[in-house]
Amino acid sequence: MAEGRSFSSVFFGGGTPSALSRRHFARVWKTLRDHFTLEASAEVTLEANPESVRPPLLEAWAEAGVNRLSMGAQSFDPLELERLGRLHGPERPGEALALARTYGFRRLSLDLMFGFPGHDADTWRRTLETAIALAPEHLSAYCFIAEPDTPLGAATLGGRMAPVSPEAQADLYDLLIERAEAAGYRLYETSNVARPGAECRHNLVYWLRRDYLALGPSAHGLWDGVRYANHRDRDAWAAALEREEPCDTREAETPVSRVEEIVMLGLRLGGGLRRGDHAGAFAEVEERFDHAFERAVATGRLERTRDGFRVAPRHRFVADDVIAWLMVVAEREARRTPSLEARAAVA
User: 259 with 247, same domain?
Assistant: First the structure.
């Protein structure tokens, strides 16, 4: 499937890969190296829970070529960590980062969460100050979404915990950007800030809509114009793999879905949607979205840049709403003019 292709990044994530033993991780890494070609400068990221970062695993990861660690801190407040169901204490992320640096890791990231029930500006400010003081090269901060299969999410959806208002969540997001930028970080994607040159290259593969393979249960990939999803259940995934059956779902792109994804993903970037990032397809983007872009600029939702458009700073937190609005406007306009799909079908 990937013969003749080389890869610029590998990302071990989507769960807790740091729970793998040293021996099992070595087997996984050997399998990847035996079947895929990695560029010499490839970024290799592994997600780790702070409590699982120990010398034997750090040694194994470093020996294998892992050169970037992303750790889920979420908060530095003990009561919030308990509420979020985290196993580590507030000191452990800092200890884990310091230990990782002794094993040669120079690209470290922390994941934080905000806007969950009981969260407020004071604890968020302290969490940000603590995270920045630890000097990771990269920070990811995600707004809480109530998921029914998590204790806090179920309690929120069930009315047992009061959600934080959208307005308060927006204020917390603004505080994140303010503190991060003051400390020398740059917003390069809606939920991610980094020091110059420390952006997660693998994340940018997603946002720039480049091809990537997804391996393992519940993983999603994009390859040669087809989006696919593997079986979510581990046993179903393994059984299908043994039988050499296709993944769970496959969806070929269309001219319209391609340009909509380019817009949706590109506008999440701090630098915005840039013509130079999509040279082969930007004419189609403009054809479908030109009217919507003009209206978005006129109403203050978007700003023009030297090479395209970006979400206006005051709308960053609701970038998804801006993008949804653009889709509706573009669809209405498309009904009055021949669509990309219609012309492709005629051709």
Answer: no
164 lies in the same domain as 117? yes
Q: Domain limits at 96?
A: 6-205
* 224 and 105 both lie in a single domain: no
Give domain status of residue 1, yes or no.
no
Where does 183-224 have alpha helices with state H? 201-207
Residues 323, 222, single domain; the answer is no
Q: Are residues 201 and 71 in the same domain?
A: yes
110: Cα separation from own chain's centroid? 13
The strand pairing partners of 273, in sequence order, are 309
Q: Kindly provide the residue ranges of all beta strands, DSSP E only, lying in the chain, ordered along the sequence.
A: 6-12, 37-48, 68-74, 108-114, 138-143, 186-189, 192-194, 220-223, 226-229, 249-252, 273-274, 302-305, 308-311
| Distance of alpha carbon 278 from the chain centroid | 20
Quote the pTM value. 0.91
CB contact at 8 A, 57 and 49: no
- Residue 338: give its domain's CATH number: 1.10.10
Residues sharing a CB contact under 8 Å with residue 250, sequence separation 6 or more, in sequence order: 226, 227, 228
Residues 112 and 199 in one domain: yes
**One digit per residue, pLDDT tens: the chain, 347 residues?**
688 899 999 999 976 788 889 999 999 999 999 999 999 999 999 999 999 999 999 999 999 999 999 999 999 999 999 999 998 999 999 999 999 999 999 999 999 999 999 999 999 999 999 999 999 999 999 999 999 988 999 999 999 999 999 999 999 999 999 999 999 999 999 999 999 999 999 999 999 999 999 999 999 999 999 999 999 999 999 999 899 887 889 999 999 999 999 999 999 999 999 999 998 899 999 999 999 999 999 999 999 999 999 999 999 999 999 999 999 999 999 988 765 555 544 44
DSSP state of 149: T
